[in-house]
Amino acid sequence: MSDVVLAATAARADTAGKARDALEDQAARGATTSVGMIVALSALGMTFAALLLAYAIVRVQSPAWPPPGEAPLPPLWGWRVLATAASVAGSVAMAWAARRARAGREVRGWLLAAAGSGLAFLAAQAAALAALERAGIGPSAGLAASVVYALCSFHALHVVAALLTLIALGPLRRGAGVTGRGPAPARVNAVAAFWHLVTAVWCVLFLGVFVS
Questions:
Q1: Helix (H, G, I), strand (E, B) or coil at 14
Q2: What is the pLDDT of residues 101-157, one digit of tens each?
Q3: Per-residue pLDDT tens over the stretch 129-141
Q4: Chain centre distance of CA 186
Q5: Which residues have a Cβ under 8 Å from the Cβ of 103 and sit 6 or more positions away?
Q6: What angle, 0 to 180 degrees and rounded to 10, lies between the N-to-C axes of helices 185-205 and 143-168?
Q7: How many CA atoms within 13 Å lie on the side-chain side of 18?
Q8: H/E element holding 163?
Q9: CA-based nearest residue to 108, from 160, 183, 197
Q10: Cβ partners under 8 Å of residue 75, min gap 6
Q11: Domains (ranges, CATH) in the chain?
Q12: Which residues have C-beta within 8 Å of that of residue 174, sequence separation ≥ 6?
């Protein structure tokens, strides 16, 4: 009987040890993911800050905007507002996904909602640029046009990157986000932080380039 008790006790201790090791390993991976994302977001933020600063300098030094000799760009408010709404909706969806992932709950629906928002944003941006092309305003039509094309295209590339990081989480897999089956909360948090930065940058672009 004592041998059975000792064996059972040893088995429980071994199971507890493995569980503890798994938790420590998960915490280590989460810390690595968080640090990596902080570094990446910092670099990306500085890149966008440099571009926006360059735009601000050009805008301030110009006697008027658009510069003299250039026709005003069509505002295309419908597409711009739609893109802004889609961008914000994607960030909201990712915030809820991160919150549910931390609670060990299903996040698949919110990840899919974020993906749909990202695709809607890209579609709206593509439609806006196509409308400029149909109006005879290409990237070489002037300084104002080149700024719009450059900033919008560069930002759109990062939206594509956000979608790729979302796909890497496996949003189409049922049970994504459920403890032990879905992406780790740290990964969802990292992707959500990336989405929030991309959304914040677009809001600054929208206000600084199209509204002001």
A1: helix
A2: 989 888 889 999 999 999 999 999 999 999 999 999 999 999 999 999 999 999 999
A3: 999 999 999 999 9
A4: 15
A5: none
A6: 170
A7: 5
A8: helix 143-168
A9: 183
A10: 210
A11: 35-211 (1.20.120.80)
A12: 108
